[in-house]
Here is the input.
Amino acid sequence: MDSLHCYCSTADVDTTHMLRCTKCKLYFHPGCLKSSNRSTLVGDLFFKLTCDRCSPDNVEVLERLKMQWIQVIMLTLYNLHVSGTSGKLGYFRWREHICSFIDKHWTTFFGDRKRTATFRGTVAGVLSSGCPLLFQSGWSKLGENGWWTLTTMKPPSPADFEGPTTLLAMC
Here is the structure.
């Protein structure tokens, strides 16, 4: 059983798309999780998981990790891209696309945290002062301000933001 992962008993593990139980260290597909507070966003691994086999009461525990704005924006851009949302040449408008997506999925990202009136300004600030390793402005390709994409089209990973070699440390 040690080589089988997830509730679906798979031997195929893709650590970039699966959550790891903090106790047994087995990997689980987000879609196989039993918790009602699991995310529907593609690539959202910002959770601490204790599978039902490791939990004292045999009930899966899925706890949202606190997300930084840069992580929220990266996950938003990734989901806009993979969902086929119509942008322009793979770029998305910061207010119409990015802020609207965050607003719609606020509870998924932040739980009960109160939505602030200034969150759109925070998004604009993170994008414009953000790291060119992470975000690419559409100015050079589109000749217009306010369009953004991920420099590398992949979802953010919690591991990318841990330790001395984090993405943020390279910005």
Notes: The chain has two domains: 1-65, 69-170. The CA atoms of residues 69 and 81 lie 18 Å apart. The chain has a mean pLDDT of 91.
